[in-house]
Amino acid sequence: MKATEAKLLAFIKKSPQFVIPIYQRTYSWTEKECRELWDDILRTGSNDDITSHFVGSIVYIEKGLYHVSSQSPLLVIDGQQRLTTATLLIAALANALGDTEPVDGFSQRKLRNYYLLNPEEDGEQHYKLILSQTDKASLIAILNRSEQPKDYSIRVTENLKLFESLIKEHKDNLATVCKGLTKLLVVDVALSRDQDNPQLIFESMNSTGRELSQADLIRNYILMGLEPQLQTKLYEQYWRPMEVEFGQEAYGTHFDSFMRHFLTVKTGNIPNQGEVYEAFKTHARSPEVAKAGVEALVADIRTFARYYCAMALSAEPNSELKLAFQDLRELKVDVAYPFLLELYHDYALGELPKADFLTAVRLVESYVFRRAICAIPTNSLNKTFANFTKALKKDRYIESIQAYLLLLPSYRRFPNDDEFKRELQTKDLYNFRSRSYWLRRLENHDRKERVLVDEHTIEHILPQNENLSSAWKTALGTEWQRIQQTYLHTIGNLTLTAYNSKYSDKPFSEKRDMDKGFKESPLKLNQGLGQIEQWDEDAIRQRADRLSTMALDVWTAPKLESDVLECYRLKPAKSGYTIADHPYLLSGTVAEVFQAFRKEVIALDPCVSEEFLKLYVAYKAESNFVDIVPQTKRLRISLNMPFPEINDPKGICKDVSSVGRWGNGDVELGLASLDELPYVMGLVRQSLERQMGGIE
Questions:
Q1: For the whole model, what pTM was predicted?
Q2: Inter-residue contact 55 to 8 (CB < 8 Å)
């Protein structure tokens, strides 16, 4: 590696050409970064005491170490964003200057011939900077001062417009802009392919800030070290089609999430948000993947990206599936994508019929929506869906999905019809996150001609106005305030209308009988309102019962015969040991403490089970969360969680992560008396909740 300090303009002028390799991400600076550079240029250009302003490094590579006097193009490893932004600014400035030259060297002709073009060269060599794919065509159109292509680069064109507007605002002060540009400083870093590892240098230089996304690092990791011919083939055949399918904007916002879901499918483990790249490298280096080769890996990513775009970006060609995926997106069920990607793969291979795939998607939707209505915390959903595919029996696809959902433990449960219906009737659905979603699903269930809910507004039949009219107070009776507070935002009092402003706070009879009123409404949600004489507590409750009953058919629960379900229930292995094998637990103070402890632990959740082993007693939800080793004067307790995560104000826990012991977990403590039990149970509860919560 050879690094030297250089003025940016001088560096560009001396360099024959900069080429952005195809494996690099597209140009991605936003208005924010462009404005920051512009402000730095103005500040530097207006102050003679400032001699330079450092803007970063330009790292490039060719076959051997060389200087910029070489006529070979420079393959840019790092610095694309700065080079492209500077090029756009210079292009905008050149167009604005025309024949004027406010500072020596800054005329339109000189700016174009020094920094934008190689005037004596033809073809692509005519341009100082060659970007990749969509960016390339857009930048060349700018440099040629020609019309933009149909599939133009959003970032390139928008940032040019930004600089044009900024230059127009400062048209009387362009000398300052020119001076600021001359003071921009870079570090010119030349790499030798024979001596330097571009990938390691690339990772190191992009280890902080928002320089690269996880997906950018992954793409470069795959493609950077390959021979040019294979590199081009893999990019054009697999990676570029993915970028196009995602689209310019969605690629930047969705691709990292897709890669996280892809790795969850492939490995069964959910990578942390900021560690997707590291998880990918581990996956790529695994014996099976490494043996299959890089093309098989890229092809696999491309295949699953197509599934993801179908589900998450509305690219699904089948209308029924497309609608189901839209409903999932409105519910924000991103956590289900690893499971659904696996199902989509089987559907694409013809191993899962479309009708069964649709049923599975709707079951996922029902599961998530019912839990939201029943206010069950969502933090276990990641782990639930990450482990889902392990339970699939592909010769009995839907049956195994239903069984898995029905057998989920209490904190991950699929709410049954009674719980869902009860909670749906009392839930504040007006302020529910997915308000338009549930209204649309109820209204359009079993409809052949769909109602566009977005063209309607939500209507409170009993108005929100705290100062109800005397007619409303009379209709509701003396307890009108309690009724309004209790039922205002509930399903029984909410509906859809295209005439919200006409309804206003009018009495129910007027809303019912007016032109286009409830009596004439074609909406399913308004059926029956035309026959109701008075809108009061009973009417609201009756309508809530009717709509919540309808909801059971919209968000259906899985149903299996008990004998079929029993076949899927995991039978816990019996150890053969009992309490009789632990003499300290049979009598005395320790036995008394143990009986109180076991009672409280089992009461923590219906899913908790107890198992006596040879040397300790285990308490499990899905796996051990607390173990007990009986001793002469106390119970030695082991909590199955990392020591740094335990919240222990009294400091009674020990870190035993590096100590051999019976039981599971890195946290150890003792329990010798009933007085200590309440505090100890608080610690035990942390271990259970951590296991129940899974990964966020």
A1: 0.74
A2: yes
